[in-house]
Design goal:
With about 190 residues, the protein is α/β, with parallel strands linked by helices. The chain has helices spanning about 30-40, 50-65, 70-80, 105-115, 130-135, and strands at about 5-10, 15, 45-50, 85-90, 100-105, 120-125, 140-150, 155, 170-175, 180-190.
């Protein structure tokens, strides 16, 4: 069975975006970008909420035609363009980006069908809303977190309205010392 993995950048105090949605606090460098590319290569489906989907759709296709794009950016842009994209939205009428499936309702049933299909794992890329929804439904199998050395004080939390304790097993950790970021890999204990 395919797994659902949430890949999120997070502040030390547990926020994935600042109070106004800002993400300029994320510790980032080429090594962390390569880490994300490596994680993406282990999957064959990208999961997004509407906001993240529209942001990605507006950015990554432009990388393919930008002469200043780095080889890493071009590689990831090609992957994003061709990977199966799953977008959850109650307000989008259509999702026209290449290889996109729009799910508007019956989230648990639709995700169960996707998990039963053959293929690699599916990864949520930085979408807090769909991470909250799928976590509430018990559909996230792993968390891949990159924790930046910053305390935001408020914003969008990674874990929101948790109804019961969530036990996690640490599968791995990696440090990116030059920017002070720690990458953690957790499995949900069911």
């Amino acid at each position: 069975m395919r797994k659902v993995i949430s890949l999120m950048h997070m502040s030390l105090d547990g926020f994935v975006a600042g109070p106004n949605g800002e993400m300029d606090w994320i510790g980032y460098n080429e090594e962390i970008f390569q880490h994300a590319i490596d994680l993406a290569s282990e999957t064959d489906a990208a999961i997004y909420g509407r906001v993240t989907y529209q942001m990605m759709k507006g950015y990554w296709p432009t990388v393919l035609t930008n002469p200043e794009s780095t080889p890493q950016e071009l590689h990831h842009a090609d992957w994003v363009e061709n990977v199966h994209k799953i977008v959850f939205s109650k307000t989008l009428e259509t999702a026209e980006w290449n290889n996109t499936t729009l799910i508007k309702e019956n989230i648990a049933e639709e995700m169960d069908k996707l998990k039963q299909q053959t293929g690699k794992d599916m990864m949520i890329f930085g979408s807090a809303s769909i991470t909250h929804t799928l976590a509430d439904l018990g559909l996230i199998d792993e968390y891949r977190l990159t924790i930046s050395p910053v305390v935001l004080g408020s914003g969008t939390p990674l874990f929101k309205d948790v109804k019961e304790m969530l036990k996690l097993k640490l599968l791995g950790a990696k440090t990116f010392a030059d920017v002070g970021v720690v990458a953690l890999h957790y499995q949900v204990v069911k």
